[in-house]
Amino acid sequence: MKFKLTSSQKNFYNKNFTLDSQIWNQGVMEIFPKVYSYEQINNAYNKLVEAHDSLRVKLVETEDGIVADVREHEYINYRFWQVQTEEELMQMAQDFLNAPIDRYGLLVNCAVFQTPTTSGIMINAHHIVVDGFSALVMAEHINNFLKDENFAPVIQKYSDYVEKEEKHKKSRRYNKSQEFWLKEFSTNPQCQIFPTAENAIDFSSTELNQDIPAELFNKIKAICDEREISPASFFNTVNATYLHKRYGVENFTIGVPVFNRTTADELNTIGLYMHLVPLVVSVKEDSFMENARRIEDSQMNLFRHQSFTQQDIKVLLGENNISVNQLFDVVSDFQEFTRNDEYEMRIPYGNSLSVPIEMHIQTFDENKYNLKIRYRTTYFTEQDIQIMLNSIVALTENALKNPDKNICDLEMVSFEDKE
């Protein structure tokens, strides 16, 4: 059956499908602490594809434009990797993830693997049909199908989501979202901190990581509880403060994810629901916590309008003669995943990036936190990013010690380095 693309999918197709398709590869690896057979895992994945129609979408050109064609499920024997070491597995996964996806062919592919002591699956999907939260759903449902082949998840059909979006666009709430976004951009925020990156033809990227001690993160959680802000808002305030102090920006945008799943069925469904929207940040020369409170309030407003996508924002601004080439060129993301003793989930990234830089806090374990910065190698050097990592950690430590200190006086040097 053929359906219209959703607004988020149109945003990918209208602009991003002219770019190298591997930029939008979404990877998820699930590792089981036991050796399942190839047949068991392959069957579980086929059950997953049969249950979730977004995994069976192909893009088709018609007289009315591009549409999503939801195909009937056909059983496939996916590729199999027999590997001996962790290093060999991760290299094969990286090569698999960096292979371009046929945008008019199968948009989701996988490989089943075995090591001497573990087994698992590596999935590579185009972002136009799978979002970041879908990785959690995939891992959970594959595990459930392995335990019970009659597992029957209650999900939302693709057609139902398209219909829901069409109804939303005719609602009063949609009109309220239009008013909200026009007001946000009435302040003329700076959407490009790195303007020369817009015309880039090389999207090659890599990443640097730095562990954050559990003790430090527990302090962040404690002060967030005390001041009634989220850790995501704390992290975004640190990043905004860094950008303000390093690049001199005051009123600007940062891309942040919004969940856009509001029902139990949607929480159980693989698809492109979550999307990035511009968080308009106005850094004021007062305390760190006063800035954090404003960012928290701004994020809560975003959640009230989370069904309004990038595509909707761009169309709205264009209709109102507000010229914006790009809504943001920095992404800030906080990801806290729940540990599962039955499997380990990893989110590998490819070596291409749609924006100059992404800043991530990730945890798959309540005692281990990681600061990850993905960056375009044509725009930043490894030394640039190492300095950035050190500065962000130092700002975090100094904000914790002096949360009510004016951000102008917060240093981007750690106490240890200062000594």
If helices are DSSP runs of H or I spanning 4 or more residues, what is the number of helices?
13
Number of strands: 14
Order of helix and strand elements from N to C terminus? EHEHEEEHEEHHHEHHEHEHHEEEEHH
Overall, the morphology is: globular
* Chain-averaged pLDDT: 91
Instruction: Classify the secondary structure makeup into a structural class.
Output: alpha+beta
Cα(first) to Cα(last) distance is 66 Å
| Rg over C-alpha atoms, rounded to the nearest angstrom | 22 Å
What's the story with the biggest beta sheet?
5 strands, mixed
**How much helix is in the residues?**
25-40%
State the strand order across the main sheet. Answer: 5-6-7-2-12
Strand residue percentage:
15-25%
> Low-confidence stretches at least 5 residues in length (pLDDT < 50)?
415-419
